Protein 1
Amino acid sequence: MNTSKLKTTYFLDFVLKIISKEYKGKSKRELETYVKDILGTRKHVLAETFYYVLQLLNLNIDVLCDELFKKHKFTLLHLESDSNNKLKDFLSPFVQGTKDIASAANIENTRLSRLLSGEFIHLYPNEVYGLAKSLSLKPSQLFHYLYDDGKRPIVGV
């Protein structure tokens, strides 16, 4: 399972190039300093920080996620059953196990279990991306829901 986390140094360089193209002078320097402070000294970028920086710079989350996580493997979750049993078909979207979800999103099963239990509280951006893509959502929908006041995405409709 390839669960490459986004390194802070790589993301900072990526963002600083965008800032250099879009801003000049004092506002550029202030924004660069602010982004560096937000990202801090962590080895890997947290999903919430990633979202906040992209929002701050008014960048398209979906486009940047597809660019930054193009090598992230995921599979679509089968939310509909292929059975002749109508009850099973109806309930199948609600009974996906964490192992199936973790595998589809390319997240280690033990990590997803710990996130769901509250033992771990921070997702990484590639994990949010994998979850969104495996559920046929735009990454921005899940980021807005998790880290802002976005509506809960409707899955499988």
Protein 2
Amino acid sequence: MRKTLLLFALLALCPPCFEILSAQSFYNVTFNNGAFPAGWTNGVNNNGRIFVIDNANSFGYFSSPTSPEASGEENVIFQHCAPSGSTVTLTVSGVVSTVGRTGIRVGFGRRATNAWNRPVLFEWSSNGSSWNEISDDVSDGASTTWGSIYFDLPSSAENVANLRFRFSYITNRQTTVISSHQTSELTTSR
């Protein structure tokens, strides 16, 4: 009884604690089968620059009810190499529904090589033609060790039957020297 009263007292004094405890993941993908799962589309002009790989296990970042799961296995690698000026995209569609959900949050694990120098745009869409920026550069702040990043989406992302996400970047290298940004375990929660 005392533990229950203490929990209610803590939740009354700490509203953010209640949000963390009540958050629920409703879409989570870990890439652990070595390929892109259903609904993930590698752009037409990518020329093999985005793929699933098992080269830097995503152990080590905190996993909580509101964070992406740190599976410690395969992850998505974004490569930055020739030809220069290519727009490289990865789209998620047909697998995330926010119908009946409010307070939508999306997050994923990330890391980058020291040589990575391209902004990675992250967007959402309710219809696949009009895109809304979540971040103009999700690689900003990524280090060579795994960490996680989260974004709270606006209310216009709520009650969408097919919420879409898109990562994109533009190459500016004329060489085949490769730098990379990696993403792991995309999670959508409320």
Protein 3
Amino acid sequence: MLRGTFFLILLALFFWSSCSESKVHHSELSKSVSDFLKQLKQKELPIVIKGCKSESLDVTDYSTDKFVWLDTADARLGMYPYCTFSSNGDYVSVIYLGLAACTLPYLITYTPDGKKIDEGFLGIGGCGAGPGFECEEYMTIRQDYSVYTSDTIISADVDSLGHNIKSSEKHYVVYKEGKILPNGKVQVSEEITKNLR
């Protein structure tokens, strides 16, 4: 009787573990991936990045020789790892930031041993500075691993003093939506433009 009860408990645990959501634990990571991730901030979802207010982001100092890169090609591209967050599958997620006038987020997913699975640009990149132009870069990864990114824009002709001519103002948003899949693939739509006024 005791043997049968023990067998049933083991069988139930096996089915529970095979049906539960797969998540990567740091003990399952290769040493290079683990060393890389230890340097990054672990964020909780939802994650929000307002790219044109990058002074509010707490970015790690990558100038030190002690920083261990997972892929040095990322350093040459001017992308810097910002944070990692728990995944909805058997992969590791890292948000990189392209540092410019506005900070642009880029997501790369890796296997637990450090092989790149997929990558996705999670920004729009239309923001900049100039007369007659205002823009807000925004990105969020929600708790259900859905992604929304947008540039909310006001553009206008300007008068000789550089002030917007109100009658010429255009208010619109350029956005993309997407999702991070349990297999680590990053799906992001094409850009969609919507008039706000």
Protein 4
Amino acid sequence: MSILILFVGTLFVGIWLNMHYEMPDRTDPAVIKETARAVTAIQRSVTATNGAKSARCSARLLKSEGGVAMVHASCALVPGPSAVAGPFRVDRDGAVETAGDGDAFQNDVKRMFGSRLGDWYLNHANSFSYVRPPVDPASGANGPLTTN
């Protein structure tokens, strides 16, 4: 009986940890600064990768650790009407990585974000609201994405 209770308790804690993830406080000045750094790098990368004239992005910082930013971003390409959205990892030096398509997506997200945040992201990615990016990406007014 005690083994069953231990198993059920362990299972419950594991499920709760997978469902719960505390994101950084968007009003914290350090989070605002790190989000702006990530958005600048993502805009540069998305522009170059997609052959656009420019990109206007908004991002929600999910985690920042050791100079590495893990974000969900939504970008409008100029000229439009194309858009890019998804998980991005921005390294200390500004190198940007995003998850591949199809079968690679889940493994890439877990590799980029780590197992715990990766699992959380995969279970909650559809809850992100895709907000219209700001008109002037150079203004620093890149508003974060919100979750429903």
